[in-house]
């Protein structure tokens, strides 16, 4: 999101447009994860603009020079972009939360700035603190610098995520293979145990006398009659 917004501002500034209201609320995130800048109600064409009439301004997103002189330039958009990044990495926390607008003005113009959350990559955090949240606009970077700085960081993050995805997939495959082996071994053990139990049951079963068939009984009866006749 930070890179998408940086590229959007880069395009606006290349076409001599000052947005003047850069904030997370004015960044739309599409389904295909493309950031689009919105709300151009305060935007002006040119490289410098001075507010001459009373107008409500987003104090907590303003650059120091805008607070003191009411001037807007592409560099003031850069400062507001840094505040927007704070919103992103703090998961939507309001900048200078719990601080009044008057106190915020005093902080910003004297060089005090927001501290980027730990969720922000260390390199990018230092870049924002040292190159974006700068009181002197002449020492502040332009959006071309910001976009160029972010791109390799994003690429590193994507590469690390891809490596982790591959490693996680390999681990899942190994776990599944191990699980299947264990299931097979357990199945074999259950089968052997079942066979052994049947064998023991058959061995211990009491023997029952076999029933004599009718023909066997008849043969024995005839034999007994012959014995009795011989005795007489």
TrEMBL record:
<dbReference type="InterPro" id="IPR011009">
    <property type="entry name" value="Kinase-like_dom_sf"/>
</dbReference>
<dbReference type="InterPro" id="IPR008266">
    <property type="entry name" value="Tyr_kinase_AS"/>
</dbReference>
<feature type="region of interest" description="Disordered">
    <location>
        <begin position="190"/>
        <end position="232"/>
    </location>
</feature>
<keyword id="KW-0547">Nucleotide-binding</keyword>
<feature type="compositionally biased region" description="Basic residues">
    <location>
        <begin position="217"/>
        <end position="232"/>
    </location>
</feature>
<dbReference type="GO" id="GO:0004713">
    <property type="term" value="F:protein tyrosine kinase activity"/>
</dbReference>
<dbReference type="InterPro" id="IPR050198">
    <property type="entry name" value="Non-receptor_tyrosine_kinases"/>
</dbReference>
<feature type="compositionally biased region" description="Polar residues">
    <location>
        <begin position="190"/>
        <end position="216"/>
    </location>
</feature>
<dbReference type="Pfam" id="PF07714">
    <property type="entry name" value="PK_Tyr_Ser-Thr"/>
</dbReference>
<dbReference type="GO" id="GO:0005524">
    <property type="term" value="F:ATP binding"/>
</dbReference>
<dbReference type="InterPro" id="IPR001245">
    <property type="entry name" value="Ser-Thr/Tyr_kinase_cat_dom"/>
</dbReference>
<feature type="domain" description="Protein kinase">
    <location>
        <begin position="1"/>
        <end position="154"/>
    </location>
</feature>
<keyword id="KW-0067">ATP-binding</keyword>
<dbReference type="InterPro" id="IPR020635">
    <property type="entry name" value="Tyr_kinase_cat_dom"/>
</dbReference>
<protein>
    <submittedName>
        <fullName>Protein kinase domain-containing protein</fullName>
    </submittedName>
</protein>
<dbReference type="InterPro" id="IPR000719">
    <property type="entry name" value="Prot_kinase_dom"/>
</dbReference>
């Amino acid at each position: 999101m930070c890179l998408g917004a940086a590229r959007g501002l880069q395009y606006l500034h290349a076409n001599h447009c000052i947005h003047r209201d850069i904030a997370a609320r004015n960044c739309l995130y599409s389904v295909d994860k493309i950031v689009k800048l919105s709300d151009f109600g305060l935007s002006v064409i040119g490289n410098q603009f001075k507010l001459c009439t009373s107008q409500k301004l987003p104090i907590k997103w303003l650059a120091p020079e805008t607070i003191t002189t009411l001037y807007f330039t592409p560099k003031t958009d850069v400062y507001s972009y840094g505040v927007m990044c704070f919103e992103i990495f703090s998961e939507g926390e309001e900048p200078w939360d719990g601080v009044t607008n008057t106190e915020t003005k005093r902080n910003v113009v004297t060089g005090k700035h927001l501290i980027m959350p730990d969720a922000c990559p260390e390199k990018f955090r230092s870049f924002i603190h040292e190159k974006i949240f700068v009181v002197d606009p002449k020492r502040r970077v332009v959006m071309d610098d910001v976009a160029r700085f972010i791109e390799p960081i994003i690429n590193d993050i994507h590469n690390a995520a891809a490596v982790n995805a591959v490693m996680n997939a390999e681990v899942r495959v190994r776990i599944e293979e191990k699980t299947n082996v264990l299931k097979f071994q357990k199945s074999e053990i259950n089968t052997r145990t079942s066979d052994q139990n049947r064998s023991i049951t058959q061995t211990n079963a009491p023997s029952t006398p076999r029933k004599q068939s009718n023909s066997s009984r008849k043969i024995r009866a005839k034999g007994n009659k012959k014995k009795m006749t011989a005795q007489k």
